[in-house]
Amino acid sequence: MKKLGLILMVTTIVCLSCNPNADKEGSLSKEPENFEFVVDRFADIKIMRYRVDNWDQLSLNQKKLVYYLSEAACCGRDIIFDQNCKYNLYVRHYLDEIVLNFNGDTTTLDWKNFMVYTKRFWFSNGMHHHYSNDKFYPEVSKEYFGMLLDSAVFKGDKDSKEIKETRKEILNIIFNPQIAPKRIAQDTKQDLVKNSAVNFYDGVSQQEVEKYYADLKKNDSQANPDRPISYGLNTKVVKENGKVKEIPYSMNGEYAPAIKEIVGWLQKAVTVAENNAQKNHLNKLIEFYQTGDLKTWDDYNVLWVQDVNSHVDYVNGFIEVYTDPMGMKATWESVVNYKDLESSKRTKLISENAQWFENNSPIDNMFKKKQVKGVEAKAIIVAHLGGECYPATPIGINLPNANWIRKEYGSKSVTMENIMYAYSQAAMKDGVLQEFYFSDVEIKRAEKYGYETDKLQVDLHECLGHGSGQMLAGVDDGMLKNYHSTIEEARADLFSLYYIADPKMVELKLLPDNEAYKACYYKYILNGLMLQLNRVDEGKNITQAHMQNRALIANWCLAHDTGGTFEVDIRGDKTFIRIKDYAKLRQLFATLLTEIQKIKSTGDYAAAKLLVENYAIKPDPTLHKEVKSRYAVLDVAPYGGFINPEFVVDGSGDKISNIKVVYPKSYTQQMLQYDQKYGFLSK
Ligand code: ZN
Questions:
Q1: How remote is the CA of residue 463 from the centroid of ligand 1, in Å?
Q2: Which sign does the torsion angle of CA 135, 140, 146, 152 carry?
Q3: Domain parsing of the chain, residue ranges
């Protein structure tokens, strides 16, 4: 792949609130064949764009709704930076100032490296890698960085005592490996709270946090054991006068300036809601932001999950707890979207048959759900990504997270159709298939069926996999502790892998023939055994839950092949894998699914530990090295993220006559624009 230029001529940034590239691009639907998906490349990252298809089929009110919700999403941007680490907004301010004001030589390698650091910082919403959670560093000297600060930011004041102190402090935060080395600590032998850079806790130890929540739960007179609130989901824990307490994220608490802005746009959204159900959950969300009350949060989710008729939909709030070492605090995120009607026929068919899939799965009968509750599955067109979902986004979402709401009211499951399309377009010509696939047979199958089976696998994972199975009485997710996420993802993947090969898929016309699933099987195994190792630095472990789950499944299957399933072929110094018998592989998936469902349903920590530690964490060093060097030749970015489209409004206030979509190309420009327009916590 061609490396795109990293040089940014600072002088070309004239006006941040208008986008010179955008106008030239025009509305995409007119010329989709000219659409450029990959627009930037730096470090281990590629920046892409996604198309907002069928935009002109929305009514004016629906367009306004998408626009207001997108503005609400932008307003929470600073929250995620601050949640990730308390230094992030501070450092970001200086990075922006340098990019905007540096008038020196921007053709040097030092400047290019400075820009790579800055873009990585924007991309990760802070100074830690978004996947590995390790702090990363600029590949320039402290002296050069100091020079940039002096010349672009401090200027005439650079010799004052106060400025010298500030300068020292900034450089120390950025360069000192002792300061905030890891976003999330994983070593359970040490204090997880104190050793994590995430900003959910201040001045408290793991023990104090554990005691605080144990007491809170014990003394909660309002508590309903069947419908527990998500304790600690939206708060920061601090110590005041020796006492541990929580500050809620709300209009009157932590992050108030940003939350007020979010609420302002949500209130506008209420005025153009499509129906009463939508109006009601928007109002409930506003109430939650006003009070920070977690009972209101549950009430909101109950309303939101039951609204299945609105065309436009959104995620907005403190949702996922992946970043909290204690698994309680949620990061802020938003996804604004509307239904892809054509593709939703596919997901509808799957959810209509949910009970059939549950009844026929290979797991033990006692762990099956007797009655699968409303799985609302749809394919969506993403119109805006925000917070934790920007610029690196998931490709499917299944919410809400509260188990009792899922059980009583079901869940909404989405496949992000246009995001997956952008990924598949970007991957088409990167040479990975030619380098790693066993033969032309596998390559041709991938070209013919790859995109279809990718989407179907996400549908099955999100809409059936996570929702399947049941726990024995008295068992909860917390019992698997640090292995819970990996086991849960493996369970959902195995469910989808088992069923994608089922004749039912062809019968329901979800796949064209009985060959198609093989494209998915091959990709999955190759990815789990080899390809994804490109995302991990040599000598390091696999740490991310989804990656651990893929490694677990692929390595376990290879280890349990009793002969005839796989062939490993060494050609020179290159390893190739062939699947000789796809039916046998399906049997292996079924066996592992049975085992993993049992672990989840019974909360068997020891068995979870054994599986994860044996198969999911440590890459084979020789194979790891090989994968890295084969990828190095291809120069493919292991991670991707997206620039958001922008909405151009004709008219204002009550007199909006139309809203158009434009597709900016410059990641740097979007970042500077966001920082300037939505920097509510950094001003
Ligand atoms: Zn999942």
A1: 10
A2: negative
A3: 86-176
